Amino acid sequence: MDIRRITDAADVLAAGELFDDAPAPEWTQRFLDRAGHHLLLAYSDGIAVGMVTGIELLHPDKGVEMILYELGVLPDYRRRGIASALIDRLAALARTAGCYDMWVLIEKENDAARLTYLSAGGEYDGETLFVWDFGTATDAGATSD
């Protein structure tokens, strides 16, 4: 498996089945062009089989944190560690960007998401929130004014 940070909208559009709806070319390029917006694709034998998106948020009193916004893996490739690998890579990117944590919200009844985020090391609040704590706040990851 190969995980790549994507900067070209054509790569996202070619992997459209990984998203809830078909990615729109204009929105895709705007997302990729924005500082602090991240999209990673996982490839197996040259086929995009998984994706994760993350968005950095800068707070005046906290520093930068990463929201794990969306995660998807093709049904035939699930339960192979692809989702965990994507989460780990986004977490590494968040640490490099100076984020103090990364978090994701789930629907309480989504057992698959809960198990995925638990296996990827997220700390669960027992309701809807998973957090990966990276330590103290820093402005190293500040991406916009």
From TrEMBL:
It comes from Amycolatopsis antarctica. Residues 1-145 form the N-acetyltransferase domain. It holds the Pfam family Acetyltransf_1. Keywords: Transferase. GO terms for molecular function: protein-N-terminal-alanine acetyltransferase activity. This is GNAT family N-acetyltransferase. The keyword Ribosomal protein does not apply. It comes from the Bacteria. PANTHER family: L-AMINO ACID N-ACETYLTRANSFERASE (PTHR43617), N-ALPHA-ACETYLTRANSFERASE RIMI (PTHR43617:SF20).
